[in-house]
TrEMBL record:
Membrane-spanning intervals of the chain: 6-26
SUPFAM superfamilies hit by this protein: Soluble quinoprotein glucose dehydrogenase
Annotated ranges, domain Glucose/Sorbosone dehydrogenase: 62-352
Top-level taxonomic group: Eukaryota
Phylogenetic lineage: Eukaryota, Viridiplantae, Streptophyta, Embryophyta, Tracheophyta
Alphabetic keyword roster: Membrane, Transmembrane, Transmembrane helix
Keyword Transferase: no
Organism: Solanum pennellii
Classification via InterPro entries: 6-blade_b-propeller_TolB-like, Glc/Sorbosone_DH, Quinoprot_gluc/sorb_DH_b-prop
Protein name per UniProt: HIPL1 protein-like
């Protein structure tokens, strides 16, 4: 009798498993069909053009979506002011709503402003909506700004003596410094995400480091979406070459991507080093004691605009500006060495002013080469190349033919580069762009039906709808529907005719597949118990 019952229960369980499997498979198939109808698939065919609309005349160096998930964004300039702006709906003929007379933050009195100096980055704590904490990276001059007293990046720990460094255009070594400071939206507000202004007085000095020359220093900051740690991008510190080999020196913090914990802030402060933070336990230092504890990746020249893919947080992409030959996009990984100054992109680099032996490297096998990029000869011929502007994986539904492509551009743009990926192998091509004829603000053109005169591109920005914005010296331009520029995208019509999904379709697919896997695993465990 017991055997019969067990056999009956086993058959019943198998029947249940079959029904569940069929149901889930049909739901998963329907969901994937829905995703395709929304245009949520990385197209292999290159788009024939990117359509832009101009929504603001002001010039800004950075944009960040408001952490409250609304249509608001933060915009900041290099001089030290930050504003909150409302982004209009696509196709509404609206412009950015911004009142520059009422900045959210004004730290101009604390900021060193110059061609390559000023406010470089702004980032919000993952729990900003409840704690109001945010962070700003900027430069200061220790002769002009109080509290600008960081340790010199040229020091005995990396076998560097500041006294041997030359005076650079009247600026002493480590007179200029890079700062990461913490601020608060409102120390007393119970809903800081509603606050329209913040206190100029910083809450905590997180990081300060003296800079050896008036060189290239990066300066962007980002919170990792998966780990919650703060990533700090630093340049190699010199305009030409890297004569002191800072980028390859594992103890130096120059030419690196740093990773620090700003929620546990006593460890480094107590050691009297760079500021108030702690070292994440899984930093590469844990297995390579030659590395400075803060270092996450090394061998970069001037990382300018990095981003995490909103759908795949492990895809951490950085534009790294070259010197003479190549502009590159790197996929950043833990402990990765990206070659500068041994290599410039895929090319062996031999700087004329390098110190003897400073560019030697035992093997190129341990170096990581760019996943995308371009030669200087491929850029705008009449102007030349300045440097690369890293961008984003396009995750908006506004232009479904761009979905899943990584967008990047040069400071002097003659097209927008877009890259596709297959098993982490990337290919990219340059795509033309133009302004919509019904753009809310008229776009000046270099010539009729040729690229608009958008000026120099300073940065990309992404809002909460995942729409991409280009921040330039002439204004803010948003990627809009291709049909507004007479570009053809066969998926646009089907996407426009459907209401957008309330959550990321691709994330739904992952969640459903994970749920499916867990159910099958549970059934297998039950079957084993019956056998």
């Amino acid at each position: 009798m017991v055997v019969v019952c067990n056999v009956f229960a086993l058959n019943l369980l198998l029947l249940y498993g079959f029904v569940v499997s069929c149901t889930l498979s049909m739901q998963l198939k329907d969901l994937k069909n829905d995703a395709q109808s929304y245009g949520i698939r990385e197209t292999r065919q290159a788009p024939n053009g990117v359509c832009l609309e101009k929504i603001e005349n002001g010039s800004y160096i950075g944009m960040a979506p408001h952490p409250d998930g609304s249509n608001r964004v933060f915009l900041w300039n290099q001089q030290g002011k930050v504003w909150i702006a409302n982004v209009p709906e696509d196709g509404s003929n609206g412009v950015l709503e911004i009142d520059e007379s009422k900045p959210f933050l004004d730290i101009t009195d604390h900021v060193l402003f110059g061609l390559q100096f000023g406010v470089m980055g702004m980032e919000f704590h993952p729990n900003f909506v409840s704690n109001g904490r945010f962070f700003v990276s900027y430069h200061c001059d220790k002769l002009r700004h109080s509290g600008c007293l960081g340790r010199c990046s040229c020091n005995s720990e990396i076998d560097c003596d500041p006294a041997t460094l030359p005076i650079d255009s009247g600026i002493a070594p480590c007179q200029y410094q890079i700062v990461v400071a913490e601020f608060t939206a409102n120390a007393t507000a119970t809903t800081p995400f509603l606050v329209e202004s913040s206190k100029t007085l910083e809450v905590k000095r997180i990081f300060t480091m003296g800079l050896p020359h008036k060189g290239v220093y990066g300066g962007q900051i980002l919170f990792g979406p998966a780990d919650g740690f703060l990533y700090v991008m630093t340049g190699s510190g010199t305009q030409r070459g890297d004569p002191y080999n800072f980028a390859q020196n594992k103890r130096s913090l120059l030419g690196k991507i740093l990773r620090i914990d700003v929620d546990q802030r006593n460890e480094v402060h107590d050691r009297g080093l760079w500021g108030n933070y702690s070292i994440p336990r899984d930093n590469p230092y844990s297995t390579d004691k030659q590395l400075a504890p803060e270092v996450w990746a090394l061998g970069l020249r001037n990382p300018w605009r990095c981003s995490f893919d909103s759908e795949r947080p492990s895809y951490f992409m950085c534009g790294d500006s070259g010197q003479d030959m190549y502009e590159e996009i790197d996929m950043i990984t833990k402990g990765g060495n990206y070659g500068w100054p041994v290599y410039e992109g895929p090319y062996l680099f031999k700087p004329a002013n390098a110190q003897e032996g400073s560019t030697s490297y035992s093997s190129s096998n341990s170096l990581i080469f760019p996943v995308m990029g371009y030669n200087h000869s491929e850029t705008y011929k009449t102007i030349g190349s300045a440097f690369i502007i890293g961008g984003y994986f396009y995750r908006s539904q506004t232009d479904p033919c761009l979905y899943g492509r990584y967008l990047y551009i040069d400071l002097y743009p003659d097209g927008i580069w877009s890259g596709t990926e297959n098993s982490r192998n990337f290919t990219s091509s340059k795509t033309p762009y133009r302004c919509a004829r019904d753009s809310p603000i008229h776009c000046e053109s270099i010539a009729e039906d040729v690229m608009p005169a958008i000026g120099c591109v300073l940065s990309f920005g992404e809002d909460n709808r995942k729409d991409i914005h280009m921040l330039t010296t002439t204004g803010v331009y948003r990627v809009t529907r291709p049909s507004r520029c007479n570009y053809h995208c066969p998926k646009e019509r089907s996407v426009a005719s459907k209401p957008g999904p309330s959550v990321s379709m691709s994330r739904k697919l992952w969640e459903r597949e994970e749920h499916y896997t867990l159910l099958i695993s549970s059934m297998l465990m039950l079957l084993l118990n019956f056998v």
